[in-house]
Design brief:
By secondary structure, the chain is α/β, with parallel strands linked by helices. Helix content is 34%, strand content 16%. The protein has a single domain, classed as Alpha-Beta Barrel (TIM Barrel). The protein contains 11 helices and 10 strands. The longest helix has 16 residues.
């Protein structure tokens, strides 16, 4: 990976100043009345999991880790994106394709030192970045481990790969830590989100979160090899019969975020988990439905666009 002269992941400056350790400490304190996702459960995660949607206490639960070659091109590059899949989730999507991980919690608890070791292992394996998958409920644990890993030589860009239901409190702690935000924008209205993901005010929360993410990192910037250095990528999964209100999602991204937003408009929906009981989610999308969504995206000028660092250097 060739990076522009002087480029480094943003968290290293916070590490050198001592701010990264301070952020980790502040985040851990918030677990006592948790507001580190937009559920605002206010559960004391040191003492009990009762009432916590994420079912995660003091320690993060990890399902798997390894180089991922199926992510977006700017993340996977030639050596893969170093993914750490966290178990549990703050959403309850009835069509989740990884429901064994997100809703059954398949995985094992890890201490901060162990999680830091995973980060360093992925770096040693040559991955282009560290990709935290479903991180919204483990922001504190990630920051705690990151402070350890940075001390031991971690220097990869960080990807925050989220369902998009993130609190401003968490994003404030992550400002200057995360290099690449990759949120879902699952729905263009909150009624559908409540029906299919069992969460309230999704569009309003997601809209504010994506705005803040873009404020922090801007549009996607890549190196000479096309590998992401910093910026925003957005995923939107096209659902049958336009029930996700895709057009409103696209309008939001183009008009409120940036027409230069890197968008992955995903076509792989198929019934999973409990979706086969809930029409129209009981069928895959049609070619016509996806082509219609693609036409809308093109009309808004959205697509997988990037800026190259040699032409436009990102802030360091």
């Amino acid at each position: 990976m060739t990076t522009p002269p002087g480029f480094e992941p943003s968290y290293l400056e916070l590490f050198r100043s001592g701010e990264l350790a301070e952020r980790a400490s502040r985040a851990l304190e918030r677990l006592a009345s948790c507001d580190l996702c937009a559920r605002y459960c206010r559960v004391d995660r040191f003492a009990s999991l009762k009432g916590a949607v994420c079912r995660t206490g003091r320690r993060a639960v990890v399902s798997s880790l390894g180089p991922h070659h199926g992510e977006e091109d700017p993340l996977r590059g030639s050596r893969g994106s170093g993914t750490i899949f966290f178990s549990w989730c703050n959403l309850r999507c009835i069509f989740c394709q990884n429901w064994e991980i997100s809703q059954k919690g398949v995985g094992h608890e890890v201490e901060a030192q162990d999680l830091a070791g995973m980060m360093l292992t992925l770096q040693a394996r040559g991955c282009h970045n560290l990709n935290f998958v479903t991180p919204s409920h483990v922001v504190a644990q990630i920051l705690e481990a990151l402070a350890i890993a940075a001390r031991e030589g971690l220097h990869l860009p960080l990807v925050y790969n989220t369902g998009g239901y993130d609190s401003p409190e968490a994003l404030e702690l992550l400002d200057g830590v995360i290099d690449i935000y990759m949120p879902d924008v699952k729905y263009g209205d909150s009624e559908a989100a409540h029906r299919y993901s069992h969460v309230r005010d999704y569009f309003e929360v997601n809209r504010a979160a994506v705005n803040e993410m873009h404020r922090q990192v801007g549009d996607l910037v890549v190196d000479a090899e096309g590998v992401a250095l910093r910026g925003l990528l957005v995923r939107h999964l096209v659902l049958p019969e336009e029930i996700a209100n895709t057009e409103r999602v696209l309008a939001f991204l183009a008009e409120e975020i940036s027409p230069g937003t890197y968008l992955n408009l995903m076509d792989q929906y198929h019934p999973s988990h409990r979706a086969d009981r809930v029409p129209p989610l009981d069928r895959a999308i049609t070619t016509e439905e996806y082509l219609y969504a693609l036409e809308l995206a093109r009309g808004y000028g959205l697509g997988p666009t990037v800026r190259y660092a040699e032409a436009d250097s990102p802030a360091s």
